[in-house]
């Protein structure tokens, strides 16, 4: 250890400037060890002298960089990104259940970083950091859907491609689709998400882990296998994302914790990918990096999912590195289950990968990260500080954004009410990561040998550490807050504009919605002044998420009530406003929808989804039956974007509403000509042919829609009706099951499930499906009638209430009045029964059932006469 003395007391001017220069606010005891440049018994790593002061920070070449000998066979790189994965749900990070045996084995044979961080709890920005080594304020991507990684960025795929690497990516979900810019440098970028549902309704925008593994191995083989050039493969697994629905046997095994079940299933498929490398002789020729893009709230700090806060629940991530045992990494110093407590992050993936395969530091892009090879080897240190952000609260919900600076001791969160937490107590060791107690009794991995003498950041709790961020000491230690705010402001001094960059089309918005994202800018104060603190509005964030779920379940009234409660407290919540407009359209409350979209458009000055808001405003006029205004708005959209078939489709829908069927048919054919893959256009053509009596043409159109998107539910259920009417019941049953699998909330899929159950004699099951159908479509007269019919012999009182509800819809059919009359007659209430049957005849005087109804009326009148002469 150096004998250099800091000198002076804590109050002297001798140490404070030095403290700020290295970018860390520490206790005096911690600082003495830190600045001396070695690791003491307190376990605090040395500061990295290659890093400049925070106030002078720019992307650069940081950290040590020793030459890596050239191996006989060039090393490949496998990057496995695991989406939405909390650190403390991996058993190698201390989770009680064995969720991750394959990742555990990788960690036991490699290196586990206990204090790894993501800069942002959002998929696209965090993956952009992985690929560029830059923080979001440098690469410019701040949200899903509304940003694109610019062509000027130098990505890991591009750098390796220049060296002759074959480059491939297999993506698990739409937020990293090619249109958002991360396809730069990849020979193959597999984002062709399935068009048939395999497990849950959002599968049009994502793929399961087994598919990711299969396609990853296929790409390796197709691009040359073990005999080809070295490869860079990015395999992206999305499964732990909400809603959690692990396949069997993981669903049953983790019935109490389906999130953990998703992780266990994903781990199984990652294991299959690693086994595939071994079978091909590639495992010991490949640098393997596994990292999560962010975690999940799971209710801590009242955040169920992610993106709203930047607490450790979403910011602390799993991060594993496994170096091959051959070539330059043959020594055991590179592996053996090391557990390292230095601060590292996604910014380090690019420089670490390039260093491992033999790049010189001068050949690499300037980054905010550093190579972790010296840290693994025990010759270098992790970061002096790390940065966190989420702009989502401001961009989408009209509340304050959050920024954070974290050093080894403290984590400061800039918010309307600032927060400060102790991340490490030099006197007591480090706290357990996200509440998970380490499996090694407090000291990570192999103790001194395994982690350079540093105490693991996921080890046993110490009295002063607060990694669960439950004790905000910002008021108590306001001087630390002031110093760290000064540093944070200096770091962000040259930050560019954080305004969204992308104009999104309808498909993009729908794909994001299917995954629980709703794109758009809130239109709130861009300077972040006077906005609510997210801590006060997390209930609103969760209410908006609940409203999304209600919308997916066709419960539009309930969704509207949810977002109205949010907007009463925070009228700037742009996401709630969008859901409100959509709910009003679906409830056919046209005038209110017009007002809602006019307000949204007032807030939208060249916002990314402006054209889509203008389209929805035209739809609102259509719902309000203001056809002139709708047509004028559609014409303006078509003039602005004549290539968009969706506007011709909207024109067709407007003509249909006016019963201008010939013009509608021409418009929908134009829509299909502009975009033959427009599944909605094919479905509307089917509706038009069906309405004109051309059943064969309708069936052809619906089947064409299903060739475009195999789980298009409205086409499936429409085709079911055609098949039933033509006595092709077996085929209709199969399509009903397909529709139900695609969307278990769709009212017509549920109705037909009930109808088939009734025809099979499964009365109780039929009742359940009819009731679920009515939850999604409460006033459907046919479903109400069928349900009432089932209750007639089981519970006449319930049947009576249901038939009364059917009549109150104003669309009850003849048979409802007939059955209502039967219920009255069974109660010997003959005058009421006669009145019902007479109304039944009036409803359809030409029905073949009329003679039977008249016979009922005659019998009822006879019964009245008999009762009149009976002795009292």
Question: What do you see in this structure?
Answer:
Helix 19 runs parallel beside helix 21 and helix 28 (729-742) packs across helix 29 (747-759). Helix content is 46%, strand content 8%. The strands form three sheets. The protein has an eight-stranded mixed β-sheet, sandwiched between helices. Strands 9-10-11-12 form a four-stranded antiparallel β-sheet, with helices on one face. It has a two-stranded antiparallel sheet with strand order 13-14. It is an alpha/beta fold. It has 35 helices and 14 strands. A hairpin with a 2-residue loop joins strand 10 and strand 11 (410-414). The longest helix is centred in the first third of the chain and has 22 residues, at 258-279. The chain is elongated.
What order do the helices and strands come in, and which of them pair?
Elements: H1 16-21, H2 28-36, E1 76-82, H3 101-108, E2 111-117, H4 123-132, H5 136-139, H6 156-162, E3 166-170, E4 188-190, H7 209-222, E5 231-237, H8 250-253, H9 258-279, E6 286-292, H10 312-315, E7 319-322, E8 338-345, H11 349-356, H12 373-377, E9 385-390, H13 392-397, E10 402-407, E11 410-414, E12 419-422, E13 424-425, E14 429-430, H14 447-450, H15 478-491, H16 506-514, H17 534-552, H18 556-569, H19 574-586, H20 590-603, H21 610-623, H22 627-640, H23 645-657, H24 661-674, H25 679-691, H26 695-708, H27 713-725, H28 729-742, H29 747-759, H30 763-776, H31 781-791, H32 796-808, H33 814-826, H34 830-843, H35 850-869
Parallel strand pairs: 1-5, 1-6, 2-8, 3-4, 3-5
Antiparallel strand pairs: 2-7, 6-7, 9-10, 10-11, 11-12, 13-14
Helix pairs in contact: 7-9, 17-18, 17-19, 18-19, 19-20, 19-21, 20-21, 21-22, 22-23, 23-24, 23-25, 24-25, 25-26, 26-27, 27-28, 28-29, 29-30, 30-31, 31-32, 32-33, 33-34, 34-35
């Amino acid at each position: 250890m150096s004998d250099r003395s800091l000198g002076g007391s804590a109050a002297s001017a001798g140490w404070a400037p030095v403290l700020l220069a290295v970018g860390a606010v520490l206790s005096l005891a911690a600082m003495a060890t830190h600045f001396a440049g070695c690791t003491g018994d307190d376990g605090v790593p040395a500061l990295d002298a290659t890093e400049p002061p925070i106030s002078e920070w720019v992307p650069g070449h940081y950290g040590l960089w020793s030459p890596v000998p050239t191996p006989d066979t060039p090393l490949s790189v496998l990057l496995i990104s695991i989406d939405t994965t909390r650190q403390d749900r991996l058993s190698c990070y201390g989770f009680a259940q064995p969720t991750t045996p394959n990742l555990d084995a990788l960690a036991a044979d490699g290196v586990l970083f206990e204090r790894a961080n993501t800069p942002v709890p959002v998929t696209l920005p965090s993956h952009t950091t992985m690929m560029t080594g830059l923080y979001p304020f440098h690469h410019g991507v701040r949200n899903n859907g509304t940003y694109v990684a610019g062509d000027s960025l130098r990505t890991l795929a591009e750098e390796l491609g220049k060296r002759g690497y074959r480059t491939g990516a297999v993506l698990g979900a739409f937020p990293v689709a090619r249109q958002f810019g991360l396809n730069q440098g990849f020979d193959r970028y597999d984002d062709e998400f399935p068009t048939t549902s395999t497990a849950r309704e959002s599968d049009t925008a994502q793929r399961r882990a087994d598919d990711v593994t299969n396609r990853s191995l296929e790409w390796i083989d197709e691009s040359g296998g073990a005999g080809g050039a070295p490869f860079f493969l990015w395999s992206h697994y999305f499964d732990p994302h909400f809603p959690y629905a692990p396949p069997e046997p993981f669903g049953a095994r983790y019935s109490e914790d389906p999130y953990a079940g998703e992780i266990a299933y994903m781990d199984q498929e990652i294991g299959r990918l690693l086994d595939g490398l071994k079978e091909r002789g590639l495992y010991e020729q490949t640098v393997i990096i596994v990292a999560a893009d962010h975690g999940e709230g799971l209710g801590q700090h009242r955040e169920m999912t992610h993106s709203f806060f930047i607490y450790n629940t979403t910011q602390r991530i799993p991060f594993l590195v496994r170096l091959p045992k051959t070539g330059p990494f043959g020594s055991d110093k590179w592996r053996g289950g090391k557990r390292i407590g230095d601060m590292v992050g996604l910014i380090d993936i690019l420089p670490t990968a390039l260093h491992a395969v033999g790049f010189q530091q001068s050949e690499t892009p300037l980054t905010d990260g550093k190579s972790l090879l010296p840290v693994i080897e025990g010759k270098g240190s992790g970061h002096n500080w790390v940065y966190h952000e989420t702009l989502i609260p401001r961009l989408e919900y009209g509340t304050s954004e959050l920024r954070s600076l974290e050093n080894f001791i403290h984590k400061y969160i800039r918010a309307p009410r600032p927060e400060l937490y102790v991340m490490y107590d030099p006197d007591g060791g480090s706290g357990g990561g996200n509440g998970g107690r380490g499996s090694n009794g407090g000291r990570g991995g192999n103790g001194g040998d395994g982690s350079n003498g540093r105490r693991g950041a996921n080890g046993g709790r110490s009295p002063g550490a607060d990694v669960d961020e439950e004790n905000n000491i910002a008021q108590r230690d306001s001087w630390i807050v002031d110093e760290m705010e000064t540093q944070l402001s200096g770091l962000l001094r040259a930050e560019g504009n954080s305004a969204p960059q992308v104009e999104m089309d309808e498909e993009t918005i729908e794909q994001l919605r299917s995954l629980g994202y709703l794109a758009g800018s809130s239109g709130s104060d861009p300077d972040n002044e006077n906005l609510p603190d997210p801590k006060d509005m997390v209930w609103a964030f969760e209410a908006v998420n609940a409203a999304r779920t209600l919308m997916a379940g066709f419960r539009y009234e309930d969704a509207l009530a949810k977002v109205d409660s949010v907007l009463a407290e925070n009228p700037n919540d742009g996401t709630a406003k969008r859901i409100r407009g959509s709910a009003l359209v679906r409830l056919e409350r046209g005038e209110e929808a017009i007002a809602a979209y006019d307000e949204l458009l007032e807030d939208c000055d060249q916002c990314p989804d402006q054209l889509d808001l203008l389209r929805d405003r035209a739809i609102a006029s259509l719902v309000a039956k203001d056809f002139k205004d709708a047509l004028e708005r559609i014409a303006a959209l078509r003039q602005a974007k004549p290539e968009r078939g969706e506007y011709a489709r909207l024109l067709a829908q407007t003509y249909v509403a006016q019963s201008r069927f010939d013009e509608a048919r021409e418009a929908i054919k134009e829509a299909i000509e502009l975009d033959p893959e427009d599944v909605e256009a094919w479905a509307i053509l089917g509706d038009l042919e069906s309405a004109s009596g051309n059943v064969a043409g309708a069936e052809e159109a619906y089947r064409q829609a299903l060739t475009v998107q195999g789980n298009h539910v409205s086409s499936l259920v429409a085709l079911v009706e055609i098949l039933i009417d033509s006595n092709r019941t077996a085929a209709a049953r199969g399509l009903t099951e397909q529709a139900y699998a695609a969307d278990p909330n769709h009212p017509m899929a549920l109705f037909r499930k009930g109808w088939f159950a009734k025809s099979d004699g499964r009365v109780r099951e039929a009742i359940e499906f009819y009731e679920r159908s009515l939850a999604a479509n409460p006033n459907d007269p046919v479903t109400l009638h069928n349900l009432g019919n089932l209750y007639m012999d089981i519970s006449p009182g319930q049947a009576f209430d249901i038939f009364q509800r059917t009549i109150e819809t104003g669309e009850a059919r003849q048979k409802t009045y007939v059955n209502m009359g039967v219920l009255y007659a069974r109660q010997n209430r003959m005058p009421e029964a006669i009145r019902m049957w007479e109304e039944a005849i009036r409803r359809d005087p030409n029905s073949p059932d009329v003679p039977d109804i008249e016979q009922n009326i005659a019998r009822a009148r006879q019964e009245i006469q008999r009762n009149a002469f009976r002795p009292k």
